[in-house]
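Q: Sequence in, structure out?
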Amino acid sequence: MVVVDVDPSAAAELIAKGEVRVLDVRTPEEFALGHIEGAINQNVNGPDFASALEDLPHDKPYLVHCAAGTPGGRSRRATEALQSAGSKRIYHLDGGLIAWSGGGNPTVTVDGDD
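A: Exactly. Output:
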């Protein structure tokens, strides 16, 4: 099992080509304020996180991110849980949503506005 670290431009390319599902592991409140379009939100600190991951489809790689993507942070913990749930290939967004937005990539809010 391999976790591949990608920068925002590589992540945007994977998403544009439809090669990954995006897994946002921040809180629902953070997600509501802005997220990558089409992302699935599962709070890594939620009580049912591990079981929720098992219920996700694992036929496609996931691009996992949190807010900052730091070593030992939420998205790093989530990649380990995703591996345990059965995902065979995982991409990790270095710098998280902060880097994504800082690179000029779009986000949407829960009601669909930029």
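The radius of gyration is 13 Å.
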